Amino acid sequence: MTLPIRFGIWALVHGSRAALQDPDEPYDASWDRNRKLVIEAEKLGFDSTLVAQHTVNPHHAPNDQLEAWTASAALAALTDRIEIITAIKPYLYHPVVLAKMALGIEHISHGRFAINLVNAWNRPELEKAGIGFPEHDARYDYGREWISVLEPLLRGESLTWNGERFQVDDYMLRPADPYRPRPLIYVGGESMPARALVADKGDVWFINGQPLEDVRALIEDVAARPRPGAPLRYGLSAFVIARETEAEAQAHLAHLFALAAKDAPIRAVQKANTDAASVMAQTMAKTPRVGSNGGTAAGLVGSYDQVAARIQAFHDAGIELFMLQFQPFEAEMRRFAAEVMPRVRRP
Fold first, then answer.
1. How does DSSP classify residue 230?
2. Which three-class secondary structure state does DSSP give residue 97?
């Protein structure tokens, strides 16, 4: 069964997505801005928002950074329809505590909450807190056990677990989820351990922005893996530049590239802080782009009709949810809602 296309936005938890020194979008990662942004996105017809989790700004530590979980609880109370997806790095929270928090936001939102499991790439965030930063595959081993503890607790089941990292004795969380069996679980990452994890434990796989053929190959690989339960669903991150003409879109892309060049010293520090074994980092190095998590590498740059057609092509390949970035964010989000959404066939 083909699922309807859904559109989401990245919350601006650490400010601008493409360039940090943009006169048309002054740096602002405040709660007030994010509150207004998500409420407007819901009114414009967007279906989801992704609230990324960082305790400190991953681009430039002196800059502001929104706290994801407190902000998500507040957004849940202030909205009526939009899905709220909040990222979690397992090393930062015990799964019993996080499960209780997730169920709390599920109740506040009346069944619109989801978690996005990410196994960390920003080394200083964990190392400077004294938590440590294990190598790539060890982080996924930890994440697998972590989600194995969390998932039955989200279901309201009584759990006893004696694992390598966690010991839980006859634990049950109440009140359970009255809206569905449990909140959805999104999983990010494209390494082999990440693919195995999402096939086993995830509901939706978030893929970083990249060309259509690469995305199609990723989906084919994971869709062929055995998994329990319902078929896996797929989401894609992408930075959008849509204009009346392709030339106008390419001109704005060139403008953002020029602005992003001013951030070169900051990006160099960020690159040094990123786990070199991260497939995301390797993939992002393949194609010049602006935006995070693949950004414009997905190719959603062009005329309104071109962008709509490319979205349709990704959907035909299996992408259900498009998690989008813009800059300047609010103005371009409105443009997308007015010009591109009506051009996309949404069965």
1. S
2. helix
Report yes or no: 337 and 307 within 8 Å, Cβ to Cβ. no
CATH of the domain at 24: 3.20.20.30
Contact 339, 279 (CB under 8 A): no
Q: How many whole angstroms separate alpha carbon 305 and alpha carbon 344?
A: 9
Partners of 235 in the β-ladder: 206, 321
Greater pLDDT, 104 or 57 = 104
Q: 168 forms bridges with which residues in the sheet?
A: 161
For residue 1, being part of any structural domain is answered with no
- Residue 8: strand, helix, or coil: strand
Count CB atoms within 10 A of the CB of residue 169. Answer: 8
**How many CB atoms neighbour CB 224 within 10 A?**
8
* Residue 75 resides in a domain: yes
Q: pLDDT for 99-148, tens place per residue? A: 999 999 999 999 999 999 998 788 888 889 999 999 999 999 999 999 99
> What domain range includes position 61?
6-343
CB 186 within 8 A of CB 194: no
Q: Contact at 8 Å (CB) between 317 and 233?
A: no
Among residues 346, 340, 321, which one has the least CA distance to residue 249?
340
Contact indicator for 290, 239 with CB cutoff of 8 Å? yes
- Domain count for the chain: 1
